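Entry 12.
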Amino acid sequence: MQLLVEQSLNAVQLGFTLFLLATGMTLIFGIMGLINLAHGSLYMIGAFVGTTVGARTGSLPLGILAGMAGAAAVGLAVEMAIFRRLYHRDHLYQVLATFGLILTANELATILWGRAPLLVSVPDWLNGSVQLMPGLSYPVYRLAVVGVGAAVAVVLHLLVERTRLGMLVRAGASDRDMVAVLGVDIAWLYTIVFALGAGLAGLAGILAAPIQSTQIGMGEQILILTFVVVVVGGVGSVKGAFAGSMLIALVDTLGRAFVPGLFKLLFSSSVADALGMSVASVAIYLVMAVVLILHPQGLFPEQR
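Predicted 3D structure (tokens):
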């Protein structure tokens, strides 16, 4: 029971990290029709910038703000310099261009920070554990990540559902051509949405930095999970991004925690560990396949 609760909390924490990444990606693809493989690089940039500022100032909150701002600034510059020329191009051009950006970002990060992973120190007020139940202590920082993710989810919901910008975002996801015809400066709407998505990716990166090391290529490791979330949740839908993030995080985390143990009932420990981890690794793709069979547009697709 204790292990189940602990792994479920780990899944929720991973789910909010995926949500921050998937929200930006799903809005960018839903509104702009842009396949951005470099979204994970913005996650990496946020982690590196935030880690550096946090280390030099001794303040993790300043590092978090710097990571968000750095990723948003890079996203803004890349959108204006490169992506504006790709919106009406075939998706192959977008894939090739963003793949090139991944390589460029990794090399620039190597030049600036080197190949050695960077470690982030958690401040004293977030260090330590809190006892959730007898025999189960859980890290305070992971609970803080869950709290920040939940707060951002509420703010995003209010932004998308209750503001004029949110109305334009939802309309753009439904029919961007009609939004442009109605007199909305669609180019600036694209820029705002892209900068917002980049900032959220940077926030996810710096929040994850104390849990995992900040290193070159860390964005590619989580990018695949993010794509699965977007497909499962439905393109262009913030609600879908949240639901997909939690579902995929639960399947991935609980699968890796419990599937090898189930196989030990049938096989030797060595075989069960290898086979169990292999099955757990593909579990999210099986879930994606089932969802697409039952709901080809995802769980909560943007209504068009």
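Annotation: The first strand starts at residue 129 and ends at 133. The chain has a mean pLDDT of 87.
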